[in-house]
Amino acid sequence: MDSKKKMLNSVAEGEKEKDKEVKIDEGNAKLIEWEDYQQELARFCSLTSALNEAKQKKLVLQQKLQSLIQVEAESLNRSNELDEMREKLESRKLVMGNMSMHSKVAEEKVKKQEEQLSSEIRSLLLAGTALSVASKQLQEANGSLAGERGYLHLKTLQKSLRVRQQYMVSQVSLLYPVKFVIGHPHEQELESFTTSIKSGVTAGSKPLDQGSLTISGLHLTVIPFTKMSFFTDKKEVQQSSTALGYIAHAVLLIASYLQVPLRYPLRLGGSRSYIRDYAPSIEPVSSDETSNSLVLTNAKPVEFPLFIEGQDSTRAAYAVFLLNKDLEQLLNYIGVKSLGPRHVLANLKELLKTILSPEYIDT
């Protein structure tokens, strides 16, 4: 392209110089002799022919120049179009790059979802197999229940077990009979009545207080546990300790027959029995840094005596409370409510009466 422009410029400059020479010749017109006329005429003809040829060449060059200018313009237009197309192509490349990034991210998400879906499908297959196994087991269980050794057989076995439990408990009732005391003082009746009213029980369904009941002919009185002194009757204290030993033995036997693990286990020793509490105890400990800090001790179960002689009355009263909690546990196991925390013998009698009733076998 540059060489073409140079050539066109040189041609144009040559034509300009020729035009200048012609003008100079016209300005310097001179007279010629006739003898030289032929030569001048021939020279003039040759000059005109040369001028015409130059004009024709000029026209040809102008045409070529115009065509070259058109070609140059078209090439410029084409280059501009190419630049625009390059810019569009770059923008398309950017768009395609973004789309490829998005497609990669979407592909990764799809792969993760496929993995999750495959894991869920595997879990569903496992669950389906487990469900089919469970359904087969259920069908087998339904078949066994509907067969000869089915529900009726289980009811029969349960009834025979209840009969056996009732018989064993009846032996306990014969070994440690809990009976009413006829003609006990009026003060104890009044105390029993007021206690039942405070606990929310009506007079028509007043529970039997432990002062009006005996176990194997022995009373269980709470007075030695609360008002123990030097002048307290030792015989009454020994009778209460023996009665507590009888109650503990009866509770332990009934719990073993009913196959109920007691919340507060018993360690039998006759009138020197103990009851264990597995709950952690909090005791105050004094030190140099803190005067009243609390220390939680849970190394081993604490035993509380079911007798008062030679023991702390508070620990003995707490032991009676725990024994009554074991009775409440057995009563709740057979579906009966407790008569209260101060009715040990009454709860034992209610337990024996409920187990020995005909309704216990049918339930």
Structural class: mainly alpha
CATH secondary-structure class of the domain at 158-181 and 211-279 and 300-361: Mainly Alpha
Taking all Cα atoms into account, the compactness measure Rg is 62 Å
Q: Termini separation (Å)?
A: 116 Å
Q: What is the average per-residue confidence, as pLDDT, rounded to a whole number?
A: 78
Helix content: 55-70%
Q: Low-confidence segments, ≥5 residues, pLDDT <50?
A: 184-211, 283-297
Major pleated sheet: 3 strands, antiparallel
Give the full name of the CATH homologous superfamily of the domain at 158-181 and 211-279 and 300-361. Autophagy protein 6/Beclin 1
Structure description:
One of its GO terms (molecular function) is SNARE binding. Residues 1-20 are annotated as: Disordered. This is Vacuolar protein sorting 38 isoform X3. There is one protein chain. The chain is mostly helical. Among the domains are: 37-117; 158-181 and 211-279 and 300-361, Actin-binding Protein, T-fimbrin, domain 1. 66% of the residues lie in helices and 8% in strands. It is built from nine helices and eight strands. A three-stranded antiparallel sheet has the order 1-2-3, covered by helices on one side. It is rod-shaped and about 195 Å long.
Kindly summarize this structure in a few lines.
The protein is mainly alpha-helical and 363 residues long. The chain has nine helices and eight strands. Among the domains are: 81 residues; 155 residues, Actin-binding Protein, T-fimbrin, domain 1.
Q: Which characteristics define this entry?
A:
mainly alpha; 8 strands; SNARE binding; 3-stranded antiparallel sheet; 363 residues; Vacuolar protein sorting 38 isoform X3; Actin-binding Protein, T-fimbrin, domain 1
